[in-house]
Amino acid sequence: MSIKSLALVTFLLANIPVVASSASCGRPDQTIRQSIVRIEGGNTIGSGIVIGPNRIITAAHVIKDMDKVSVKVGGKRTEANVAAVQERLDLALLLAPTGNIKPLQLLKGSPRLKDDVWAMGYALGNALVATVGKYKGSYDKKLYTSASVNYGQSGGGLVTCNQGKHVLAGMIKAFGAVMIDGKLERRDDFSVAARSEDIRQFVASNQQIAGILESFIVQAK
Q1: In degrees rounded to 5, what are phi and psi of residue 102?
Q2: Distance (Å, rounded) from C-alpha 57 to C-alpha 199?
Q3: Rg of the chain over CA atoms, in angstroms?
Q4: SS3 category, 208
Q5: Which of 66, 107, 133, 177 could pair with 41 as two cysteines, CB 3.0-4.6 Å apart?
């Protein structure tokens, strides 16, 4: 089974000052972990984030070649409907039953430099992982961290701590790579994520169409 590849990035990060979060938390607990779901379609596996009732965000490149998209929520696999895709930001909004899973709250702004972050997703299509790292900065509408990510974690959550609570800082998009002997090798200390503010705007701009689509799905059942 092949796992959807994360995009490779090789450029260097400038230290750009940002503002926002605070406080310290332990590792994400089970409530937070349940909001990170598994995305499946054909031979592809990725990750997604519950950001509202029956609303899931994932990376657009995860579902790009899927004929049918399914999500595994709370141990149950169900079909998902694609409500909207924004390829420029690599975002996709899915509709699927999320039951009693608590949506992840979006962070306002960006983490502070060197804040702890957790990259959460289904690495290599296996069990959910939460790899810890530090926030390194923002550039070109992307967040950069030292958290390790791997194939299968695309679309997963970049979680941080704000005022003593875990919140969603972004969505995992890619890992870093270096050229060694003419080949690109994955770096364990460099990853890229979409910003929470872009996720918020994307979801808000597509709420109406998502609601209309959801009503038709309910009527068809």
Answers
A1: -80, 125
A2: 8
A3: 16
A4: helix
A5: 66
